[in-house]
Amino acid sequence: SVADFRRLDRLRPRGYDPPIQVRLLQSHEEYLDAERFQALVWQFEPRELIPLNELVVAQKNGGFVFGAFDPRGAMVGFCFGGPGYKKGKVYHYSRMCGVAPSKPSV
Fold first, then answer.
1. pLDDT in tens, 4-20
2. What are the distances in angstroms from CA 43 to CA 35, 38, 51, 60, 100?
3. Alpha-carbon distance 66 to 18, whole Å?
4. In whole angstroms, what is the distance from residue 64 CA to residue 66 CA?
5. What gap in Å lies between CA 59 and CA 67, rounded to an integer?
6. What is d(CA 33, CA 73) in angstroms, rounded to the nearest whole number?
7. CA distances, 28 to each of 13, 51, 83 (Å)
8. What angle do CA 66, 104, 19 make, to 5 degrees?
9. Taking the CA atoms of the chain, what radius of gyration do you get in angstroms?
């Protein structure tokens, strides 16, 4: 769950500032960055993008929309998925996950 992910963030040692920060998207601008990221990484046409409103709704209803951000705050990675159900079992369904072409080591 989102709460579990936030608890994990608290386990980071004090003073440790990772070069790439992975976290849930939080602002309107970050969701717009996710739209632009899809076009950049997968070269999606506008009709193929998962739009801001769908990403927000997914995250508010059990899905995850993560961004990986460099020290300047630029999105260098993106991951989106949600809960799946099969034969009475719940699992995480990863819809898309990618890294900016200029950041293959992320």
1. 555 556 666 676 667 89
2. 11, 7, 15, 27, 12
3. 16
4. 6
5. 13
6. 11
7. 29, 11, 23
8. 60
9. 14
Summarize pLDDT for 20-53 with one digit per residue, the tens: 999 999 999 999 999 999 999 999 899 999 999 9
CB count within 10 Å of CB 86 equals: 8
Residues 6+ apart with CB under 8 A from 37: 75, 78, 98, 100
Helix (H) or strand (E) holding 79: strand 75-86
How far apart are the C-alpha atoms of 33 and 35, rounded to whole Å? 5
Could you identify the residue written with the tokens 């309107």? 28
- Given a contact cutoff of 8 angstroms between Cβ atoms, the answer to whether 98 and 53 are in contact is no
**Count of residues for the chain?**
106
- Using CA atoms, how far apart are residues 13 and 19, in angstroms rounded to an integer? 14
DSSP 88: T
